[in-house]
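in:
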């Protein structure tokens, strides 16, 4: 069982680490996304130079990484394999070994996996974020307010323990990622 969990975690990380933004930008002859805008490899930054279509393609690829990692993790090691592979896919997406430690913010990868696991919770999370954003009018602060609701909402809908654990792990991970980005943005702005 431990071997299967380890393989699920490794596959999850490697899937997440595939730098979709870099691949799409290079395929379209666009500049390296690490050199402009936020410097991230996510869809919104790629769209700045390569266009909205490229940004959507990156978003879909990043989302697919989370779901595929979860499916493979579940197949290899059951529900806890989903937790490990899914969480490590988000880690890989945020800090890719194939892109010198650069990556995206992790929301599309984590959000797609949450959509696969519990579509109603994802819908509730989106509404919480919209409400938070409309109140505070600041994207990162809206994310900070919303993230803690993920495991709470999973628990509220009586999701299994492993799913709540995934929600908590991804919440902590994304909170750390967005906190670092928020500090960086405040220093440069």
């Amino acid at each position: 069982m431990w071997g299967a969990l380890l393989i699920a975690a490794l596959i999850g990380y490697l899937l997440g680490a595939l730098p979709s933004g870099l691949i799409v930008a290079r395929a379209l002859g666009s500049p390296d996304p690490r050199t402009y805008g936020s410097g991230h490899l996510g869809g919104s930054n790629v769209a700045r130079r390569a266009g909205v279509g490229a940004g959507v393609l990156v978003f879909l690829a990043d989302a697919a990484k989370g779901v595929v990692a979860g499916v493979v993790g579940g197949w290899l090691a059951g529900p806890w394999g989903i937790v490990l592979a899914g969480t490590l896919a988000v880690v890989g997406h945020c800090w890719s070994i194939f892109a010198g430690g650069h990556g995206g913010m992790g929301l599309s990868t984590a959000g797609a996996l949450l959509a696969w696991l519990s579509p109603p919770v994802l819908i509730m999370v989106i509404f919480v974020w919209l409400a938070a954003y409309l109140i505070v009018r600041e994207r990162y602060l809206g994310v900070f307010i919303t993230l803690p609701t993920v495991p709470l909402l999973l628990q509220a809908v009586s999701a299994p323990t492993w799913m709540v654990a995934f929600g908590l792990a991804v919440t902590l991970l994304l909170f750390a990622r967005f906190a670092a980005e928020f500090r960086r943005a405040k220093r440069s702005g």
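note: The mean pLDDT is 93.
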